[in-house]
Amino acid sequence: MQVSLFNVRYLILDEADRMLDMGFESQVRKLVERCGMPDKANRQTLMFSATFPDEIQRLAADFLKEDYLFVAVGRIGGSNLDISQTVISVPGDDKQQKLFDILLQSGMYLTECNLRLLTRIFFNIKTMYA
Question: Cα dist. 25→30, 38, 59 in Å?
């Protein structure tokens, strides 16, 4: 069974620079060029990223209308000065508890009853193949 992309009117890629830079370009290209999706003139394409290096911007232009609009907030390729990163090495079995401890200590952890989220957690899973 195949899914038709003929009626797609909006193509939205979050972390587009990573998708295009990390080897997913061919899959994105296949979706937009060979799976029945309307061409770039007949769909709205939005790409979001915190960073967008020049070479990836040029690559991304292949998927955008000729007169696309590029909106930059802050310094391209730079991090927000209000964000800090800390690397903590934790054994695998202790990671969830360590995360909860850090959130509780920071005062940013909310109970399930609160609707407002103050913490966003990004993670990457590495798989090793023998």
Answer: 8, 18, 9
